[in-house]
Amino acid sequence: MKLLLISFLFLTFSLTAFANSIPKVIYGNDDRMDYYQSSDKLLRHLSRSTAAQISRDELTLGINQYELSGKTLEEIGMCKSERFSSQLTSANCSGFLIAPDVLVTAGHCVTQISDCDKYFWVFDYSNFEKEETSFNFNEDQVFYCTEIIKREKDYSNMNDFAVLRLNRAVPNRTPLKMRTSGKISDSATVAVLGHPTGLPLKITSNAVMRDNSDEIFFRINPDTYGGNSGSAVVDMATGIVEGILVRGDTDYEKGDESCNSSVIRTEAGGRGEDATRITNINL
After folding, report:
1. Segment 152-156 mean pLDDT
2. To 5 degrees, how large is the angle CA 8–CA 12–CA 144?
């Protein structure tokens, strides 16, 4: 997710919000895991309160169920050798619950109230037991926003967040706990819960601090991508939300083949990924 459009990534990609997102990158080993691959009970629990922003055009309502459509990672131009290349890439951004009917995401994911008519917020877009090739959701998993409670997208100080009211309370989910004052520890290890490149939810763990000096955001090194915009950045020890993922390094680069591959950095390489401090929402 950087502030420049990554047009090469989306030549065949029609997801509008992705065109405005800010790309990410792999640092060292790829720490992304599907829900069923993670053994961390805390992170698995927190991920159930994560939602995918999905265009209404990608969901077709049948008899009490929505059927998801979309292209796979390979179909949008990524190399077949990429991890998760056969999985759908249907999400635009990520978000997470902080109250039964209140969701937080990045400010660049929802720019105006009319966006509430364009997108659903869908829970359980995840591979719970194995890698799925299709997804169906019931009405208790699909929501939309009715109000932008608070939003910032400030290019001068890089503040970037949105707080949304959903059309009704989300049942059987635990709103995430947030830091309310102070700063994340310099020594914290964090995880990111969201939808990189629109994929089913990935638990991305073991990221560390790069720079904790700015008052508006902090910089870490998670393996995250466009589509992770709005993801919760949580302290792995406490489960407390410390930030909202909003910016980062370039995701993909053209290889020798006619496809794109993930950019690989060392653990300390690249620019790192930026997370808006959750204390900025100040509700």
Report:
1. 97
2. 105
User: DSSP string spanning 223-273?
Assistant: -B-TT-TT-EEEETTT--EEEEEEE-S--EEE-SSSSEEE-EE-TT-SS-E
Instruction: Render the burial of 197-217: b for 16+ CB within 10 Å, e for the rest.
Output: bbbbbbbbbbbbbbebeeebb
Position 226: which residue type? Answer: G
Three-state SS string across 141-165, please? HEECEEEEEEEEECCCCCCEEEEEE
- Specify whether the CB–CB gap between 82 and 70 falls below 8 A: no
> In sequence order, what are the residues at sequence separation of 6 or more whose Cβ sits closer than 8 angstroms to the Cβ of residue 56?
117, 118, 119, 120
pLDDT at 4: 29
Measure the CA–CA gap between 266 and 271, rounded to whole angstroms: 11
CA distance 84 to 249: 20
Angle, vertex CA 134, rays to CA 32 and CA 229, nearest 5: 40
For the segment 81-109, what is each residue's pLDDT rounded down to a tens digit? Answer: 999 999 999 999 999 999 999 999 999 99
